[in-house]
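Batch job 17 of 40 flagged for manual review because the log was empty.
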Amino acid sequence: MRVTCREVGKGSIELEVYGETHTVLNLLTSYLNMKLAKGYSAYRVEHPLRQEATLYINSGGGDAKKLLLEVIRGLIEDLESLKEKLDKAAEKTQP
């Protein structure tokens, strides 16, 4: 995955994401929107056959870059926790 910053404004950021579509971006925007009290996050895929998307984050006045990094760290922690739980469940089901 490659990410290019297109625009940074006061409390907002726009990123071009290459090599990903709905899988990662849907999860990321969901986590961002849960974290935001004001503002929003969304993404747009221009064409379904191209693995390019634009991610929009409006933090409602806060630091959008800091928010994005915080959400990514939280998402990584949640995914690692899920992996541990799945590994434990798989161990219990094996004879």
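Reviewer: the log was empty due to a logging misconfiguration, but the result itself is present. The two ends are 39 Å apart (CA to CA). Unflagging and moving on to job 18.
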